[in-house]
Each structure stands twice: as C-alpha cells, then as structure tokens.
Design goal:
Elements (H helix, E strand, L loop, with lengths): L1 H43 L4 H15 L4 H13 L5 H21 L3 H4 L12 E3 L1 H13 L4 E4 L10 H5 L4 E5 L5 H11 L4 E4 L4 H10 L3 E5 L8 E5 L2 E5 L2 H9 L3 E9 L3 E6 L15 H18 L13
Length: 318
Amino acid sequence: MTELRRVLHHEAVRRERRYRLRRLVKRASLSALAGICRAIIALIRNGDHDRLGRAAGRLMRAIGPRLRGHRVARANLKAAFPEKSDQEIEHVILGVWDNLGRALAEFAFLDRLTDYDPRKPSNRWIIIDPADNERGFKIVDRGGPYLVFGAHLANWELPPSFPAAFGLPFTGIYNPSGYGAADDLLVKIRTRRAKLIPARFGAAVQIENVLRQGSSIGMMVDLRFAGGTEVVFFGRKCTVNPALAWFARKYEFPLYGARAIRVPGGRFRMELTQELNPPRDADGKIDVAATMQMITWIIEGWVREHPEQWIWVHRRWL
C-alpha cells in the first residue's frame, strides 16, 4: 500500500508539472502574440483602414471555412433560418468571416474611427441619423447614469464611443481573457474612449461605485453565460448575463440598446434605441428575467437584419 501511495504521489507530481509547463508555454505564446500584434498595429496604422479591412476580410474568407467555427456557424444558422438554402447559409457564413477579418484589422484604427463629433453631420467614418443624434443630446440634457446593452455586431468596439462623443462618462464591462499580455493590449486599445471594468469577482461593487459617481455602464449580452438567466433566442433556449437588468431593477436608471452597422465605404452607422420600458412584476419592480428576454428579442431583431455581421461561430445555445 505504501508503494502504491508513493507511485500515485509521483504521478500526481508529474501531472502537476506538465500542467504548469503547458500554462507557462501558453502564457509565453500569448505574450509573444501580443507583441506581434502590437508591431503589426504600429506597422499598418499608416495605411487606409478600409483597404486593409477588405484585405483582412478576404483572408478570413479563405481561412475561416477550414476552422471548426465554420461548422458551428453552419449548424447555428440552419437552426435559426430553416427557410434558407445551403447556398444562402454558406454565403452568410463567408460574410461572417469577412466581418471578423475587418473587425480585427480595424483594431489598429479605433482611435480614428471613434474620433467623431455628433454636432457635425460630415463625419468621415461614422454616420449618426438625426433621431439618434437628438436622442443622445436629450440624454446629455437629462444627465445622470444610464444603462446600455450591446451585441457582437459589425465592429462591436465602436458603440462605447457614442457616449464619449456626447461628453458623457461611460464605463464598459468586458470579459478578460485571463492572460496578462493579451488583456493589456486589448485594454490599451479599448480605453481610448471609455473606462473598463473586467467581469470577474468583485465587479458588481466596482460597477455600483461608478454608477454612484455618475458614469453610465454598458455590457455585451449576446454570449453564452454559464449559470445565467434562461431566455429564448431564435426559438432556442440559451443563458444570458442578467447583471444589467439587476442594476436596472435596483436603481431604475434608463435602459437603452446601442449597435454599429457596417455600411459600404468602410463606414458605420451608429444607432441608439429609444429608452426601453422594462417589464415589471406584481410589486411594480423591474422583472429581471422578462427584461433580459426583451433585450434578447431586440438583439435577435438586429441579427436578423444583418446576419452576416454577427458572430455565429460560437456555441450560443444550450
């Protein structure tokens, strides 16, 4: 028995060493990758974002069909759009890869793409319709924090710049990758127009602090969230992070949705919904589950309008 325990102990030690070695290699690889990405960003920033975006889109159209995500996207789209033919489905998936390639290339140019003035209708890259512009200025006049949700559509890094363009303090909630070098690069890019809070233990306290300080908050709510609130998306059950609805219930702050839509010429249309009227329970308090379902239906409507601009390549459903 003693010999058996000794063998098992040594085997456990070997497994632990292998695990630590794999983590070290992975961290080193990601650190190197982040360094390469920084060098690439510095190199391509002198180019034209639309031309480089088109090139990155073509590259992802060639690479994407060879990735596992292509099969995931095909299954997701067939379930979501049973009326579409196989050819139509494949056309949409290629558009998804094209959009992802463009979005990756556009990281190098986010400071330029988000440097726009809502008071000037002639912004080069960002289009804001008059109704959305007026909505933004009304929020400024009213003051106070508001809550906003978004989705991974077109270039999802652009909507957080909307409040900053109107002079409104804004804090975005993001999911860290867990690897310092990669996160540092992403945070450096993203914090040019908004503050950030990582979605990890203790985030709720930080969010409440920034809300009390007058900052609005926003988060993406279109990814699978383990242990979250169950909703229906394209007729199938999935889970979402209910945090935004909980804050709406607790503070009664106004709730909006924001998205960017990719349009020809390397441009984007920025949209902000009207203030939403969340469902309420028998006590008159905002119903968290019903509110998250309302938000999910809005996002589903967005995706149906431009299915090629959403990330179908991840496992969204239960």
